[in-house]
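Task: fold both queries, return tokens.
Query 1:
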Amino acid sequence: MTFVGSGGTNPPTAQQLFRRKAGHLRVTTLFFWWSSGGRLLGSTVPEVTTPTDEDPRGPGQEPLEYGALASRFEAIQGETGRTPDSLVPRSIMRGIAAGLSRAPSLRRIDPLKSYQQRSLWARLADEATARPEHVGFVLLGDGGIRELAERLGVPHKTLATRLDGWRRTRPRMVVTFTGRRVRGAAVLHTVQIPVASDLVLWAATTRAAVDEVDGRPPHPLLVADAAERLAMLGATGPAFGTWPGLDDAVEDLGAAIERKGGEAPRRRLETGRHR
């Protein structure tokens, strides 16, 4: 399998988590790679420090991390001349959300201990994948955590407890951003699901490429199948020059999920290929 943009030999860069330290952005890169047969081999896990990033610009304003990733999405979109929904259609965003909702069960220790927690996590994943141009972020106004709690249909204290636990997982399920303190309390104004950010950009890059076989972008349902499986594994894939390579990856990723004790999701698009 050839990794487009990597010289054909090196593993591709996958997840980029941006953190602020000493007034600067620091980028930690998470690598996932495949063998020549397409089998998921392993990853390097990013170092995790302070679980909450304080953004000095206050509530309701976008953190620098969001701006960096949104600009990257806009650049890909600009090169294609397509709308966000045309580049990364809703079917792909739903695939990412579905994979995220099932991903915790594949961790060594499942952080979701009840149906209520699993349901809340799934609703948060839906919020983070509502718009492709939001690149995996949930942007809040002055209402902060109360606003998000109302959108998710839970008491704000319950949500605060869950977010606090999820941002302490390794690797982190969420990253929370707070602004300046108001009446002694830091106001939550952004929540990021890093895997969602990564996969939206991966899907945009994949859909921006013209297939070497038929001269068209990969079918959105095929990209959605790959994105769902990648989300379950907490990974992103390489760029693909042809749709058969992406089709093979869907099968390989399903096998990787089963090796971890999970069940591969049903495919949205059956290509009818014989491998």
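Query 1 returned. Query 2:
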Amino acid sequence: MRNLILFWMLVSFSPAFSQNLYDLANSKEFASYLYRSQQYSLASIELERLLFIQPDNDTLRETLVRSYMLNKDYVVSIKRLDSFFPNPREIKKPFDDLFAYSLLADKKTERARTFLSSNETLELEKRQYYQAFSYLLEQDYKQADKLLSEIPNTNTTLAPLRDLSKEGVSMRHKSGGLAMAMSAIVPGSGKFYTGDWKDGIISLISIGVTGYQAIHGFQVKGTKSAYGWIYGTIATGFYLGNIYGSFTSAKRFNKRQSDRVAQKVDAAFSIQP
């Protein structure tokens, strides 16, 4: 922002330049300056104004779309590309690449695959790259792996995607039903199964202690033992919570596994065309 203020100060004290500030050439230079200085939001405003003057200028169109993309305004970049090319089959280079990336970045994976299947301007390797990524972004690792296995290894750009798909396929999820059954038989064991050792030990001890107190109370005074009923109720609550907690522990484990691979996919996809 400070650079922008300095720029305007220079403009204000330069009569010759200020008179021609809104000339097309100077406006383009200003938009280029904003873009190069990574002020993408301001650059897009200036570029929109320039496109109003020169609506068919492909250089301005490309820079505008890239400004929106670099600002992560993928909804707007898609909207502008749709306005430039109402018929997706007519999208030309380099807009085909920008369109495919924007669709995937905005998680419009099905639309991206539809576009890629009918597109004839993108290189085959690039189409394969985006198609594989569409499944990875959906966390459909089996389909991504199947697609990639059908493509010769000569396409080296797909090597990182092959690794990600295989890592996704090899993920081992924990069964919530099995975790519940284990904890029903041995309190806390379902949480041990999901790697939640701390909670498992707490469940085992809390149920063991309260259960023992309940049994002791009933042994001393029988079914009339208030002590036994109180601790029995507490133990039952702990026991049922332990079963349900084992189910949620399995869900958390699976989510951590999925998130770990998904984060790697997002990181790999962060490099824009």
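Both queries returned. Flag for query 2: The chain is about 75% helix and 0% strand.
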